[in-house]
Request: fold
Amino acid sequence: SKQAQLMEVLKKEVRAMLIAAKAGLTPEQLEEQYVAMVCKPLPLRDLGFQSTLELVTQMPEVVRISSKNGTLILKAIADDSTKGIAKLVANQKVKTRKASKKAATKANPTFPTKNSKNPQSFQTLSARTPVLPATVKAELQDLLSSSPLLLMDLDKAFLRRFGRAFQYRQYGFLSMSEVLRSVSDSIVVEQTKAGSLLVLRKYLASTIEHEEEPQASAAEMPPLEPICETESFYQAAHVMDSEPSVQTQAVDLGVHINQVRCWKVEGKRCNLIPALLPGRVSGSGFEQCSSTPEIPPDAVQDRSLCSLPPLKRRCLVGVIVEFIVSPSQFYIHICSTEASYKLQDLMFEMRHVYSHKVASDKYIMPESAVRPGQLCCVMVSKWWYRVIIHRVINDQEVEVFYADYGHLQIVQKSWLRFLKWHYLKLPAQAIPCSLAWVKPVEGTWSSAAILLFKHLCCFKELVGIVDEYVDGVLYLFLCDTSTKEDVYFHSVLSDMGYADVCGENVPSQEFEELNPSALYVQPSGKQGNAEVVEPDLGLQQESRDADN
Reply:
């Protein structure tokens, strides 16, 4: 029956999730993990269950239920096909100091040859604590930007602000103190009589405070309506002598315009450019006003983002996997402090600018601009993201590609805005990737293989070993160094019977069908406004012998 088939699939999924959680999960955490990984809630009603606990009690061969300090803990019971993975997870370390020593002792790295199934003796990087996604870190900083917050009040404040609980365990953290250590570059913990106080570092808080001052430039403060003879309109007109250029067009947030042209209209002093006025100036003032809104001169219309510079072959680089379709199609972020700060700064600035209704309304896109290939931005949960329109669904909806994160999503047209030229500088941060040297045993990746790959990658910093680029897709090996023994993902997929190690890179079928990055993002070097964002030198390492 359909219920029996659904139950069998669910057992495999639940076992995989619990195996990946060394300390086990509570029923609530299992629900959250399932939604995060499968993108839908547990099918309790479809199977006739009222609760998650009732469901797992019907899986005695899959789930072991225990109690710790009055809290129910669910742990996996491994079967023959998952004992190897369970052993790897059981060997996972809580502390990673030994791993750094181990990495330091590996002095002579070698790279895999086509005759070797498992690349051994890579010079690995020291194991690191898990990493918060950039959006979540930005949310924490935003939460603390107005005032410090007691640690005991963090959960309630986060839920009230963003409409969801702060579930740090789903990002791979074991405790809140581990989370705070990972964001110590921007958040300080101070001990007070009331308890631990979370404070945003002064430099960041002062930056946000400076941005909040009512001194936005004219570019961010356009007129509310085309009423020509108002002082607010005169002060709101944007100064622009020529067609916008990357170097001169965009005005940074909070910077005053020092050079303006001045005219007198009916005895009033105003800062404006005649070409931008909806009416013309005569001896008696404005003769006519147009009610047709114009596209702002600093709105991106016919430009594209560029990609990050290609990584050198056989280099090691710290990566975080941001979005996964399968082992043959996923997107990564490079673990670079510089890149991380630039993306966070971009998100903060975009939120500040577009959150002002006057400025946001100025960049509303007319219907003629809502077309495939158009670079713009979209608001989701109060944050703004750079996107490219992939296709128009209907009169209200479009499908967009998130250039900095790698996924497609259907959004409302009304959520879109023109992207300012200033936000075109940072290269697209998502790198399209495929796991090197593997292919699915059955022609396509099974749901179990994809789920296992997601668990291996889940919210942790990994070591990527660059193999080559094929048609703009980066083929690399992935290695988890947070265990006693380095875990190479292509070997795990092969050992589990999900993949064949073929010693060469088979073109990704998924990317051949659709590669939004190749469609909409220009290769590095073809965009004059691109800023090079290199990985940290401590992460990118070349082989001592490139021909070894």
User: Anything to note?
Assistant: DSSP finds 17 helices and 22 strands in the chain. The first helix runs from residue 2 to 20. The first strand starts at residue 63 and ends at 68. Residues 315-520 form a domain with the OB fold (Dihydrolipoamide Acetyltransferase, E2P) fold (CATH 2.40.50.90).
